[in-house]
Amino acid sequence: MRDALVAAAFRLFLERGYEQTTVDDIVALAGVGRRSFFRYFPSKEDVVFPDHERCLADMTAFLAAGPDDDEPVRRVCDAARLVLRMYAENPTFSVQRYRLTKRVPGLRAYELSVVWRYERALAEYLRGRFAGRRDGTLRADVIAAAVVAAHNNALRSWLRSDGRDDAEAAVDHALGHVQAAFGAAPVPAALPPADGDPEDVVVVVARRGAPLWRVVQELESVRGRG
Amino acid sequence: MRDALVAAAFRLFLERGYEQTTVDDIVALAGVGRRSFFRYFPSKEDVVFPDHERCLADMTAFLAAGPDDDEPVRRVCDAARLVLRMYAENPTFSVQRYRLTKRVPGLRAYELSVVWRYERALAEYLRGRFAGRRDGTLRADVIAAAVVAAHNNALRSWLRSDGRDDAEAAVDHALGHVQAAFGAAPVPAALPPADGDPEDVVVVVARRGAPLWRVVQELESVRGRG
């Protein structure tokens, strides 16, 4: 029933346009009553994004289920992958919706509020993990925003490819940037311990003509000594 | 006239509530006609955020006016400070609006769309600056999102302090995090003599925790300038 309503709605949105389609049109095509529609969807906008509520719940559950010693930035990146997977499961539908959303300002606004809720879910998780640390909420908010931006950059590239590119590879690449900037993964030896001095600096002096690899080698060995 | 409309609107929003106040109520209190209202504000929501259009225009102009060799991350951080200044110019009004916006879902949605436009303005600028560089649009989007998140974290702290804390200090601190993560900040000291002495040296100063790829990237750009 739910799937039939979504299918009927999208058929009409594509044929007539979103604004020109009423809930009555949708239920007539699906062969059900208005009450059935509103049992599943609070409004016409919600039928455009039928899976976000479930995905938000999945994300929250995923974050809550993680072990306490899991690296927090990797964890939120993995949580963001759940959203991508939802889109990638159904490329045709996702691409159609992308085109529709671009044309209808009301749907763009709806989408922004959904994106905001994902971002808050990630930020709340990180705030918990960073609780008691200096600038914990600031770091949590910044990392959550960076993860969402990277995810959406990859998602939009994939949607613009009409779902033909490799979505998982694109998002892995994009989230790799965020992990490199904020996570522990790329430079594990160089990270200060949680209680370490944040002002700890490394100074490398190199001739301008020195080969880059040698400077990097030197840099790594200096950083590793921390 | 514009200011009088904003003052009348806020008086009524605070007395009766936002939803219970009509545009007719506002123009009656301000002693002007409906047409005057709509000359300044496309809708009732717009009167709640009367300065964002000007601030967005200021931000775009500020970014466009920057010298080509300005460090891009610092530039977008400075652009974000324009928004904070707009809030800090009028603490009482900003705090009232913050409380109002928290209570009215429609205003929250409006605010999200405004935040999105600021973020896009910063991202577009960075995309231009990073054009032709690998992952330029990805980096642009991630940095713009991080700047906005840091700014908003500081702004919300200030609003929650009822405008009593030092707004500029809070946002400087927050944006400092973003510059540390993404900007050229970790490598402040490069010593390239003007005559290109083959023995000249490069001094790299990096936080121990800075991601290696970013140090290398900066190192490359410093060496390239020789």
TrEMBL record, chains A, B:
Keyword Cell wall biogenesis/degradation: no
Feature: DNA-binding region: 22-41
Keywords: DNA-binding
Residues covered by the HTH tetR-type domain: 1-59
Domain of life: Bacteria
Coiled coil location: none
InterPro entries: DNA-bd_HTH_TetR-type_CS, Homeodomain-like_sf, HTH-type_TetR-like_transc_reg, HTH_TetR, MftR_C
Record-given protein name: TetR family transcriptional regulator
